[in-house]
Design brief:
Blueprint: H1 4-16, H2 29-38, H3 44-57, H4 61-65, H5 69-75, H6 82-99, H7 108-111, H8 119-130, H9 139-147, H10 157-167, H11 173-186, H12 205-212
Helix pairs in contact: 1-11, 2-8, 5-6, 9-11
Keywords: 4Fe-4S, DNA damage, DNA repair, DNA-binding, Endonuclease, Glycosidase, Hydrolase, Iron, Iron-sulfur, Lyase, Metal-binding, Nuclease
Protein name: Endonuclease III
GO biological process, one term: base-excision repair, AP site formation
Length: 221
């Protein structure tokens, strides 16, 4: 059920970031799956720099399997955990060819069985590639949801997702996911959030405490 508080939060964030969208560059479900896999513990900006060349070289699952693992590792070495991710990419591509005729499956339960694809990645793919409403909880969504009281401070990622799904209308799940990310990435940052200019400060216990704490002045020597 969408409460008055939740509606206020959703509408306010919508006004701040009406055009929030997936910032990972891709042109099809397969590229999106690879990009999201690479984005684990890595910024979208870095992923986009790497995939600019990667997606020119590799167009299909067959392409990723046509090179030695070491070559793929070198192609993505700027990405954190690149060795493990290269291994997962080739394993994923092998499964796509063996089970799905080289195509990324649309069903969530099939996606999470792919190497390197967790619940968050699957939610991003089904919502952005196939138009199925979903809320993917990344570090930004989790932080913002907890700060604004839409989830408990000790909730797991799955619990945050479940609570958001109950509070947000289903037809707004995907857009809310993007807007919460933008709000967390560009406004309610982990460090130095813009509390003094936040229209949702009244909903944020942490923000209120931050504003009460006077900033330390640098001593002049």
């Amino acid at each position: 059920m969408t409460t008055k508080k939740t509606r206020h939060i959703l509408d306010t964030i919508a006004e701040l970031f009406p055009d929030a969208h997936c910032e990972l560059h891709h042109s099809n479900p397969f590229e999106l799956t690879i990009a999201v896999l690479l984005s684990a513990q890595c910024t979208d900006e870095t992923v986009n720099k790497v995939t600019a060349d990667l997606f020119r070289k590799y167009k299909s699952p067959d392409d990723y399997l046509s090179v030695p693992l070491e070559e793929l590792e070198q192609d993505i070495r700027r990405i954190g955990l690149f060795r493990n991710k290269a291994k997962n990419i080739q394993s994923l591509c092998r499964i796509l060819l063996e089970r799905y005729d080289g195509q990324v499956p649309e069903r969530h339960e099939q996606l999470v069985e792919l190497p390197g694809v967790g619940r968050k990645t699957a939610n991003v793919v089904v919502s952005n590639a196939f138009g199925i409403p979903a809320i993917a909880v990344d570090t930004h969504v989790e932080r913002v949801s907890k700060r604004l009281g839409m989830a408990g401070p000790d909730d797991s990622v799955l619990q945050v997702e479940q609570k958001l799904m109950k509070q947000v209308p289903r037809d707004e799940w995907t857009q809310t996911h993007h807007r919460l990310i933008f709000f967390g990435r560009y406004h309610c940052k982990a460090q130095n959030p813009q509390c003094e200019a936040c229209p949702l400060l009244d909903q944020c216990k942490e923000g209120k405490e931050r504003m009460k704490t006077p900033k330390k002045r640098k001593s002049i020597k």
